[in-house]
């Protein structure tokens, strides 16, 4: 896995523990807020710590207009949880695409929401501007 130099990633939310890697097959469900990082580039890469799995990942425009789609991109766990290391627009194996990816505009603010599997567990919500 290639890592961006320190400072190249935008830290978005606090609450995680240690960084580690996981796969879809050994992921434990997330049931608390996590520390999210969006690494700039093409495509942007979305990660979080601790390394655990979510039910849904949704990206919306933080200041929607009537012509804004309901989601910029949304994926949902199917046979596997959504784990860190997601590339924007790429649907991982075992995950279902709900809304196809829309281009992200530079300078526009977006909200990322990670929804846990366990009912009642708080989602993680962060905003960032590419």
CA-CA gap between termini: 22 Å
Rg over CA atoms, rounded to whole Å, is 14 Å
Whole-number total of structural domains = 1
Q: Please tell me what the overall shape is.
A: globular
Total number of helices: 0
Number of extended strands: 9
Order of helices and strands: EEEEEEEEE
In the sheet with the most strands, the strands line up as: 7-5-4-8-9
Mean pLDDT: 83
Helix content: under 10%
Poorly predicted regions: 1-23
Report the portion of residues in β strands.
25-35%
Task: Name the structural class.
Answer: mainly beta
* Largest sheet descriptor: 5 strands, antiparallel
Protein name: Lipoprotein
Organism: Gemmatirosa kalamazoonensis
Question: Can I get a quick summary?
Answer:
This protein has 130 residues and is mostly beta strands.
Characterise this structure:
This protein has 130 residues and is mainly β. The two termini are 22 Å apart. Strands 7-5-4-8-9 form a five-stranded antiparallel β-sheet, with no helix packed on it. It has no helices and nine strands. Mean pLDDT is 83; it is low at 1-23. This is Lipoprotein. It comes from Gemmatirosa kalamazoonensis.
Question: What layout of secondary structure does this protein have?
Answer:
Blueprint: E1 10-11, E2 35-39, E3 45-49, E4 56-61, E5 73-77, E6 86-87, E7 95-99, E8 110-115, E9 124-128
Antiparallel strand pairs: 1-2, 2-3, 3-6, 4-5, 4-8, 5-7, 8-9
Organism: Gemmatirosa kalamazoonensis
Protein name: Lipoprotein
């Amino acid at each position: 896995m290639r890592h961006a130099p320190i400072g190249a990633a935008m830290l978005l939310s606090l609450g995680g523990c240690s960084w580690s890697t996981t796969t879809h097959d050994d992921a434990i469900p997330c049931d608390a807020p996590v520390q999210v990082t969006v690494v700039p580039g093409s495509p942007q890469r979305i990660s979080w710590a601790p390394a655990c799995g979510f039910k849904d990942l949704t990206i919306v425009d933080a200041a929607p207009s009537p012509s804004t789609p309901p989601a910029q991109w949304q994926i949902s766990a199917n046979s596997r949880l959504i784990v860190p290391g997601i590339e924007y627009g790429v649907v991982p194996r075992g995950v279902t695409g709900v809304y196809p990816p829309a281009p992200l505009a530079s300078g526009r603010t977006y909200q990322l929401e990670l929804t846990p599997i366990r009912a009642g567990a708080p989602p993680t919500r962060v905003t960032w501007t590419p």
